[in-house]
């Protein structure tokens, strides 16, 4: 089962789903449903765990049985699936499993009780219930209780779908029936099949969270410049740099992910040189500018990937912070005098953001910060820190249509080499 595998192996749910769909030869419809169930289970794991344990005399020792109950309860409480269909399919799944086949009656009784007591369960609304304690403590320490709580609340909603267009955002927003955000991204109002929207085939736009679109914009790539994107795949930011007319070297350690970048750029009719290599080992002529979208804990993307909250650990953050520092040092060594460096991570953790920027400037006095100004991001100054870096939070970008609010949590710092 996808939830058990993801938790046990501490790998992204997306990877587990991909393996499972291949092994079980799932149709794309079944795969999409299984993915939606797993996602909502992770998003509301704390709520589901409490609801179930309050309705069980003794929680089952078998982790898979607990996860089977959680995925059933998630569908009853949060998805539009008829209760009886959920109960029948959970019982059926147990009956087909030699270790769980005895549990059919038990599953039936527990899930029926969850369905009967749905309103009572949903009325309990401790905003921290769906956040692991270690993240709750970190976010309160970093952002203070009220703001941290808005982050936890934002994580209970699904992320919206944002697009970056090559040109003419106003008219594309109109054509696609979307909202043009102050930062230039288009937010779709409806969840639809992306490939069927106008402009997809022609490569006029690509899916990219509104916050994820900011780092490449702040690099301000210019036609003819030679720019390296050091952790490039699947290529959203490479596409922005190439669309601006710069010559891009897209580097990524993963050849498989780099292949996806190449496919994405081909659809967009954009070009980049690619190199599958560990960026720490890259040898190249110095660049005019570098984008370093470093590998990170990804706690800023929990709305999209709620498994992150339950699979990442403090130890991961510590190790990733070390790698980010080394990649920053490498990037510094690859720039021309006067060159620009944009560093970003989709993490809410200071070790992967604010503290990286501080220690980079201490290690590299030949660089200075190039503060971000509100006019560069459509006048949206809320997310600029006193130091001039960018810190976006999932609870920001509130729209009148509440269920379309929010954006990924990103940290972005921009540096310039002092020599000219
Ligand atoms: C946050 S993702 C990049 C997303 C990408 N910039 C985009 O906008 O689509 C981080 C990427 O870094 C790559 N990576 C991790 N460690 C690396 C290293 N040492 N050198 C190069 N790439 C690395 C991963 O394979 C992953 O594709």
**SSE succession:** HHHHHHHHHHEHEEEHEHEHEEHHEHEEE
Q: CATH H level of the largest domain: which superfamily?
A: Vaccinia Virus protein VP39
Uncertain stretches of 5 or more adjacent residues: none
- Averaging pLDDT over every residue, what do you get? 95
Class inferred from helices and paired strands: alpha/beta
The count of β-strands is 12
DSSP strand content: 5-15%
User: How would a textbook summarize the main sheet?
Assistant: 8 strands, mixed
What ligand molecules are bound, each kind once? Answer: S-adenosylmethionine
Number of domains: 2
Q: How far from one another are the termini?
A: 57 Å
CATH class of the largest domain: Alpha Beta
Pfam families: Methyltr_RsmB-F (PF01189), NusB (PF01029)
Family: Belongs to the class I-like SAM-binding methyltransferase superfamily. RsmB/NOP family.
GO biological process, one term: methylation
GO molecular function: methyltransferase activity
